[in-house]
Automatic annotation (TrEMBL), chain A:
PROSITE patterns: CARRIER. This is Acyl carrier protein. InterPro entries: ACP-like_sf, PP-bd_ACP. Coiled coil: none annotated. Residues 11-94 form the Carrier domain. Gene3D superfamilies: ACP-like. The lineage of its organism: Bacteria, Bacillati, Bacillota, Bacilli, Bacillales. Pfam families: PP-binding (PF00550).
UniProtKB/TrEMBL annotation, chain B:
SUPFAM superfamilies: Thiolase-like. This is 3-oxoacyl-[acyl-carrier-protein] synthase II. Pfam families: ketoacyl-synt, Ketoacyl-synt_C. Residues 9-438 form the Ketosynthase family 3 (KS3) domain. Keywords: Transferase. GO terms for molecular function: 3-oxoacyl-[acyl-carrier-protein] synthase activity. Gene3D superfamilies: 3.40.47.10. CDD domains: KAS_I_II. GO terms for biological process: fatty acid biosynthetic process. Belongs to the thiolase-like superfamily. Beta-ketoacyl-ACP synthases family.
Length: 101, 822
């Protein structure tokens, strides 16, 4: 696989903010620019709830093929903390996916 | 009737049971397999589960499914109705009752029938059993209430493409269609409703059925639940990670549930009638309690506070002491959220030292959703008759919060409990608790108010609110209708709850929830209900279809992207009690809560239900509501139901009203619009117009009878007609046949001005009736302000207005709305 397949971090973050959060969850009164990389997504901060967390997970699978089913719930919470941690999870998964190719 | 009989008159017996589940298709087989600690849960074969987290469910044997088709295979119906028909037929057969059709039968009532049987028996004792086995119930005196979580969702799944829905299958989708098809096939003509409170639905249906008998609207009721295993519902639980990949162990160490399917029914009748005819009595249904968590759309209140309120209500109404409850059949789904919260709720009700044996039957046949309450009740009652209570299979070690409870494990426990409690909880926060007396050896007679007192308590309307044409109205509904009539302007914009009251709004809130919460806020404000009063307020909501927009969003995700990509945020709205649930959550309505569908009579049915609860003193005030939403899916359903041929445009909107006990309303100096003085309801099918007209006349006659007036005393009739060709003319003809020409009041329909919505229009006409008999309307009428609507210009206050509603399938309800004379 070519290098162009490996996504850069900024693009991923931008996609998470716009497509995974704002469009998918139909967030109102907030723009991608207002979602900082370290804004807490669940509970406080953006105030997303557990049902929305599942939607985010499905979105990650749909957009990036990231499967989080095998990750234990406690660990998953850490990965879904903010845009930065989600982007890192996606990056890690992409690299894992391209290893050995 | 001696004293004892009059006490028994409104006590309810369970005299028939029917069951269809993964363990079997009749009670004895199911019992034997439960006794052998067998589970019916196995690998799903009906659809692919490769991409999902679990592949287990409690499916029906294919041969039983085929048997459920018997005699109805050629008819177009959803599997939900087919399952229900199979279980309801079984229940009716086991009760020894048969339904007799025809006018002659309609003249008789069940007490006469019982007396007749006894007279025959006295003469010919040999024939006792044979005669009892064929005791005939007039069709008009038997009703049916069905609980379902997902209605006819399989009829949409069968098409798997929302962009090209056909008419035949789509017509079988609506929730109310399931209750209607079941009633039609059984030949029932009394009150019919489909309760849609998700996983609490059949418990609510059984409670509602007992009310219909106690309040005199029926002598016998078939009540139960039905939900076939659905691919898209399976996908929804999958995305919420609620499925267990292994066999579920309620209260045990492994989190997650296994889904099930099936149907279960009971036959309810008056205890005195049951005793008199020598029926097999499985239990006495003492009382039921309903509540709402008002906490979250899918997760239960973490401490089980909602469940506690339902149990406490049921126990208090039953007047049974907590120490007399000897067994609790819990909801016990196995999910992380439910079981712990439920045990906590039970502790809050029964005390921290929870010593009552508890079990969950779900490990036998899976979580059968809308069927769960009825299935778990029926199988518990049958087992108790054999001297056992059900166990919790697959239990290993108790999970946190469940350590001290006496969970009946692995095998049935030999027990003959005096009283039992059966609980269920649902998405949307709805809870139900049933209290039953299962030891029938002694005539324990919890004392309850007599029927005579029940009839004395009067119900008034103290608040009105509506969202229609994109506008919100706090009272002033007739004025708005008059404006519509003069301008013919149709509102094009949608009501925005976010702009009206942001604190009650949340993101993605569908239009029906926004409209309903808006209408509820307006009605509560109009009635000047305080925050404290709100906690005790009941809330009964009717919607024919729920949010078809949210339902489409969810199904679209499953059908287009695939079940593994099911949308978690829309899944909770595929159950249509989500509207009532979200309203309860936003307004903190914690008390008696119900949600149902009839397909056009929602407004009057909600009023009947609430008025009954106020008359019998379960509630002192109740918020009622009804609403519909327009969407692409709703237009497809309109087409399937022939509504595009209606003379009215299809619209969306919600109406809410506050009903109150008269004494309380007077005491708190509420302004009173009107009194609700009589109701009637009759099930029919729109097979032919003479039949439909007869159904209308039956509902109207019953309402007039309850109000103690005749057609001649009516000043006005508000006819909420569906408006398909010939329909309105037939209805006018039927009404005209009930009165002499010179005594016929004007008949008006406001759908011409407001448009038509199955649930919305039904309550809009009731609200308009309430305003028209109020003192406020008198001056408006005198000035001719309502002339555009066809309301006669007169100075005298109207005394009685009759509101009539029909369902799209041909059932009718009627209510007499009377002037409030201090």
């Amino acid at each position: 696989m070519g290098v162009e397949q490996i996504l850069d971090m900024d693009t991923i973050k931008q996609t998470i903010k716009q497509k995974l959060l704002i469009d998918r969850l139909k967030l109102e009164d907030i723009t991608a620019e207002e979602i900082t990389d370290d804004l807490i997504l669940f509970g406080e901060g953006l105030g997303l709830d557990s049902v929305e967390a599942f939607e985010v997970m499905v979105g990650m699978e749909e957009l990036y093929g990231v499967m989080v089913e095998q990750i234990p719930a406690d660990e998953l919470k850490i990965h879904l903390k903010n845009v930065q941690s989600i982007a890192e999870l996606i990056m890690a998964s992409q690299q894992k996916g391209t290893e050995g190719l | 009737m001696n004293m004892k009989d009059s006490e028994r008159a409104h006590r309810i017996a369970v005299t028939g049971i029917g069951v269809l589940c993964a363990l079997g298709n009749e009670p004895q087989i199911v019992f034997e397999r439960m006794f052998a600690s067998e589970t019916g849960i196995g690998t799903v074969t009906r659809f692919k589960t490769d991409a999902l987290l679990s592949s287990l469910a409690g499916q029906l044997d294919e041969a039983w499914r085929d048997a459920a088709l018997a005699n109805t295979a050629e008819q177009s119906m959803d599997w939900c109705a087919r399952y229900a028909i199979a279980a309801a037929k079984q229940a009716l057969h086991s009760s020894g009752l048969a339904i007799v059709q025809g006018d002659a039968a309609a003249q008789a009532d069940v007490v006469n029938a019982v007396n007749a049987v006894n007279a025959v028996n006295a003469v010919n004792a040999v024939n006792v059993a044979a005669t009892a086995a064929v005791l005939q119930i007039p069709a008009s005196r038997i009703g049916l209430s069905l609980g379902t979580c997902n209605g006819g969702i399989l009829s949409l799944e069968q098409q798997w493409d929302l962009s090209a829905l056909d008419e035949e299958n789509t017509a079988n989708y609506p929730f109310y269609q399931q209750g209607d098809d079941t009633a039609r096939l059984l030949g029932v003509q009394g009150p019919v409703a489909t309760l849609n409170t998700a996983c609490a639905a059949s418990g609510n249906a059984i409670g509602y059925a007992s009310d219909m008998i106690r309040w005199g609207y029926a002598d016998v009721m078939l009540a139960g639940g039905s939900d076939p295993l659905s691919h898209s519902v399976y996908a929804g639980f999958n995305v919420l990670r609620a499925l267990n990949p292994l066999l579920s162990s309620p209260f045990g160490s492994r989190f997650g549930l296994n889904l099930g399917e099936g149907a279960a029914f009971v036959v309810l009748e008056r205890l005195d009638a049951a005793v008199q005819r020598g029926a097999t009595i499985y239990a006495e249904l003492c009382a039921y309690g309903l509540s709402n968590d008002a906490h979250h759309m899918t997760a239960p209140h973490p401490e089980g506070a909602g469940m506690q309120r339902a149990v406490d209500m049921a126990l208090s109404l039953a007047q049974v002491a907590k120490q007399d409850i000897e067994y609790v059949n819990a909801h016990g789904t196995g999910t992380q959220a439910n079981d712990r919260a439920e045990i906590s709720g039970l502790k809050r009700s029964f005390g921290e030292q929870l010593t009552i044996p508890v079990s969950s039957s779900k490990a036998y046949f899976g979580h059968s959703l809308g069927t769960a309450a009825a299935l778990e009740l029926v199988t518990s009652l049958y087992a108790i008759k054999q001297g056992y209570v059900p166990a919790t299979l697959h239990f290993d070690t108790p999970r946190e919060g469940c350590e001290e409870a006496d969970i009946i494990q692995h095998s049935m426990r030999p027990m003959r409990p005096k009283y039992i409690v059966s609980n269920n909880a649902a998405f949307g926060g709805h809870n139900v608790s049933l209290v039953l007396r299962t030891d029938l050896s002694e005539a324990a007679t919890p004392h309850r108010e007599s029927l005579a007192e029940h009839a004395k308590r009067r119900v008034v309307i103290t608040g009105l609110g509506a969202v229609g044409g994109g506008q919100i109205h706090k009272g002033g509904i007739v004025n708005w209708l008059a404006e519509q009539a003069s301008s013919k302007a149709s509102g094009v914009s949608s009501f925005s709850l976010k702009e009206y009251d942001k604190s009650k709004y949340e993101r993605r809130m569908n239009q029906l929830s926004q409209n309903t919460i808006g209408a509820a806020l307006a009605a509560l404000e109009d009635a000047q209900i305080t925050e404290v009063e709100k906690e005790e307020l009941g809330f009964i909501f009717g919607t024919a279809r729920g949010s078809t927009d949210s339902i489409s969003q969810y199904l679209e995700s499953v059908f287009v992207k695939g079940p593994e990509y099911a949308s978690s945020i829309y899944f909770p709205h595929t159950v249509i009690n989500s509207i009532a649930g979200q309203t309860a959550e936003k307004l903190k309505l914690l008390g008696f809560n119900s949600s149902f569908s009839t397909g056009g009579n929602e407004g009057l049915t909600a009023a009947l239900y609430a008025a009954g609860k106020i008359r019998e003193r379960t509630l002192s005030s109740c918020l009622i509501g009804a609403g519909d939403e327009c969407s692409a899916l709703s237009r497809d359903i309109d087409r399937a139901k022939g509504l595009q041929a209606s003379r009215f445009r299809m619209v969306e909107g919600s109406v809410c009203m506050v009903l109150c006990d008269r004494e309380q309303a007077v005491q708190r100096q509420s302004s009173i619009y009107a009194e609700l003085s009589g109701f009637g309801t009759a099930f029919g099918t729109a097979a032919n117009s003479p039949q439909q007209e007869a159904t209308l006349c039956r509902a109207v006659a019953d309402a007039l009878n309850e109000a103690g007036i005749g057609m001649a005393q009516l000043d006005l009739i508000l006819l909420n007609t569906v408006g398909r060709p010939g329909e309105t003319e037939g209805e006018r003809r039927a009404l005209s046949s009930m009165a002499a020409v010179d005594q016929m009041p004007p008949i008006l329909s406001f759908n011409e001005y407001a448009g038509f919505g199955e649930s919305y229009s039904s309550m809009l006409h009731l609200a308009a009736a309430a305003e028209l008999v109020s003192g406020v309307a008198a001056s408006e009428m005198a000035s001719g302000a309502y002339a555009q609507l066809g309301v006669p210009q007169q100075t005298a206050q109207l005394q009685h207005v009759l509101a009539v509603s029909s369902t799209v399938n041909g059932s009718y309800s009627a209510a007499v709305v009377s002037a409030w004379n201090d």
